[in-house]
Amino acid sequence: MTREGKQAAAGDYVLGTMNGPELRAFEQELASDPELAHLVADLSDRMLSLDNVSETEAPAALWARIEAALDNPATDEPQTTVVPISKKTSQQAPGTPWMALAACAVVALGFGYILGATTLAPPEPRVIAVLLDETSASPAVIVEAFGDDSVHLVPLETFEVPQGQVLEVWTLPDAETGPVSLGTLDETREAMLTGPDLPEPQPGQLYEITLEQAPGSPTGRPTGPILVKGFARNPVL
């Protein structure tokens, strides 16, 4: 075989696309050809280095933001890049070296995407509000409000939610708009909520949680008892 033929065959062998008589003939050649053995070993090491990537657990906040994005997909269609393939390239046999290199590139891009997704720094909140229990004046919930109409709730206490009722989260962007619901929860838990299109959250903006009849306030305004409330402030970053 020529060197180009050996490179192509080595790529097919490492990727596991050989079988039957072709595989047996290649392994016989491999045992007697040092150059071919070197090509196989080198390509195997390259593929192994791509596979030796330690797993990284994605932060819970990242998964919450991903779920929120899936519930509210962007309206813009994703851009697709089409790469034309020349007639000469498309007619090459499956065993040519470019296929092995393309396979390596796909694997590398896949690992790069996974690592990038798990190491992205989460966005910083625009404002933070500490919601207080009116009876004891103790912190009960932390609200992180972002500039994309989403809020991150971190409970510090557990609220009792009777059957048939829900916790409803509200904000007051301004007096003219009035209170706006950001969403409901059927139990006390950390959550990412995405409300309607609202102005940029500002310092002094009111956030509160009320107890409402399921599935939520029938009037679009708080009707149940206020469990906790607080005013937003800019974080010191």
Automatic annotation (TrEMBL):
List the transmembrane segments.
98-116
Domain of life of the organism encoding this protein:
Bacteria
In terms of InterPro entries, this protein maps to: Anti-sigma-K/W_factor (IPR051474), RskA_C (IPR018764)
BP GO terms, sorted: regulation of translation
What keywords tag this UniProt record? Membrane, Transmembrane, Transmembrane helix
Residue stretches making up the Anti-sigma K factor RskA C-terminal domain? 100-226
A Pfam family: RskA_C
Q: Which GO terms describe its cellular component?
A: plasma membrane
Among the GO molecular function terms of this UniProt record, one is: sigma factor antagonist activity
PANTHER family assigned: ANTI-SIGMA-K FACTOR RSKA
**What protein name applies here?**
Anti-sigma K factor RskA C-terminal domain-containing protein
User: Species name for this entry?
Assistant: Devosia pacifica
